TrEMBL record:
<comment type="similarity">
    <text>Belongs to the glycosyl hydrolase 43 family.</text>
</comment>
<keyword id="KW-0378">Hydrolase</keyword>
<protein>
    <submittedName>
        <fullName>Arabinan endo-1,5-alpha-L-arabinosidase</fullName>
    </submittedName>
</protein>
<dbReference type="InterPro" id="IPR006710">
    <property type="entry name" value="Glyco_hydro_43"/>
</dbReference>
<dbReference type="Pfam" id="PF04616">
    <property type="entry name" value="Glyco_hydro_43"/>
</dbReference>
<dbReference type="InterPro" id="IPR050727">
    <property type="entry name" value="GH43_arabinanases"/>
</dbReference>
<comment type="pathway">
    <text>Glycan metabolism; L-arabinan degradation.</text>
</comment>
<keyword id="KW-0326">Glycosidase</keyword>
<dbReference type="InterPro" id="IPR023296">
    <property type="entry name" value="Glyco_hydro_beta-prop_sf"/>
</dbReference>
Amino acid sequence: MPIVPLLIILFTVYQNPSKIEAAEYSLHTNDTLRYANPIFEPVLADPTVVQVGAEFYAYGTEDNWGGEGGYHLVPVIKSKDLINWELLGNSMDKKPEWKERGGIWAPDVTQVGEQFYMYYSFSTWGDPNPGVGLAIAEKPEGPFVDQGKVFDSKEIGVANSIDPFYIEQGGKKYLAWGSFHGLYMTELTADGKKPHGQKIQLAGNHLEAAYIYEKNGFYYLFGSAGTCCEGANSTYKVLVGRSENLEGPYFDQQGKSMLDADSGTLVVGPNASGNGYAGPGHNAEIITDSEGQDWLLYHGLAKQKPKLKNGTNRRTLLLDKISWKEEWPTIENFEPSITSQKAPVWK
């Protein structure tokens, strides 16, 4: 690439990163791929990602993108490098019918054997009895066919039972979930379709969007605190605690129990800069590249362009490298990057 256009693009990225499309700022300098946030827009809220061979598929909450793409029922996008994404469409052909009304939020997709399991939330704002369902597909792009309700809030005994996360250990299936009424976990039946046994509380009422990652003998419990959906005033941030056991107890870096209201070690929060992002949170699965670097995908709202014209929160997809400091995960400066960064390496 000629040096003058490269400088122009880099200057534009630094001045206003929210204005640049992903394909425009995948820059090559000295054979090193670079990128700048956001990596996908206009919306991919509450993301989840699954790697299938050399390809990645990411999914997000049901949303109406208005004039920037229309309505999407659990959109699915595809990439080979985590930087350049192609919108494939909707991962579901139709909305599940086990609830009269509500949105399909915060999907969690995992490959289980040769199939792909999507646990999803079915809820309205302020819903007195939201729940979690399961849909299964033969291919990562779908279509995901609904298997029905796994549980609702009244059945499981936890208010606002949304934001599922699936994990396996020792040949058993588990589901973590919860939204500001405690983070919980339960074992599932062998087919993954119903809870089995007693639920365990992992964290307190200040968190939602549970995600558990195993590394170096610890289980790291990530959760999001604050508000997700108030445009430029969103206060979302990602906190973490860890345990030597999947079932807990979990503690933050200061030794506080994650059951305590003020617990959690900061991973990433809003940018201090007015050109940055508000409400970074609800992280997807951690992806490790060919050089052993770990990467976190999550959503955030550009402060200068936080909503679509139809009022939908413009929760774009963000990507940043995780640094492990004293065996604790963090994003540089504890905030989303807004300048050109070295991209993940794939061989």
